């Protein structure tokens, strides 16, 4: 099998148990060498956004918290470096659906540790769904039980329904619930996204779920 990132031929290591159980050794779409090139975030980290930082909350998060946004306690697994950007490029923009297998196991393990009552992936717009064909976050989580309860507010619909320019500018919330009046009382929710950039997306998603009664919210992103 050829590594999807570097093109090297991967050698599968057969174990005795593979041999007796007649199954192929498990192989990911990328090789071990490429996997080693992703940078794990090991800490110390900012407890709010998950970036590598000596101070917590970091200066950026201090601004969000001072502005009154609820804490999201983001946990990020990897640095958003060149290797990760290359992976995202192929996975999201070059039809790399099969590359979802690279991080499935790691994300599932992290979510087991977080132990929320609901796992909610950040949704993609209908336009992205048409172009890409899949939600990159949900595809990582296909072995987990997820609740796709958030959806993107269609901009054209939202803009039409608002009368004044001022109203349009004030409304930045891009998400709403798929079902109106969904009761999330008592739910400890973990929102999952691909990368934490400014944190705006996760904070909007979080507000939307808190408004519907969620008791506790934290977030997990693959990269930061
Ligand atoms: Zn490789
Ligand atoms: Zn931070």
From TrEMBL:
InterPro entries: ComF/GntX_DNA_util-trans, PRTase-like, PRTase_dom. The lineage of its organism: Bacteria, Bacillati, Bacillota, Bacilli, Lactobacillales. Transmembrane segments: none annotated. It comes from Weissella cibaria. Pfam families: Pribosyltran. It comes from the Bacteria. CDD domains: PRTases_typeI. Belongs to the ComF/GntX family. This is DNA utilization protein GntX.
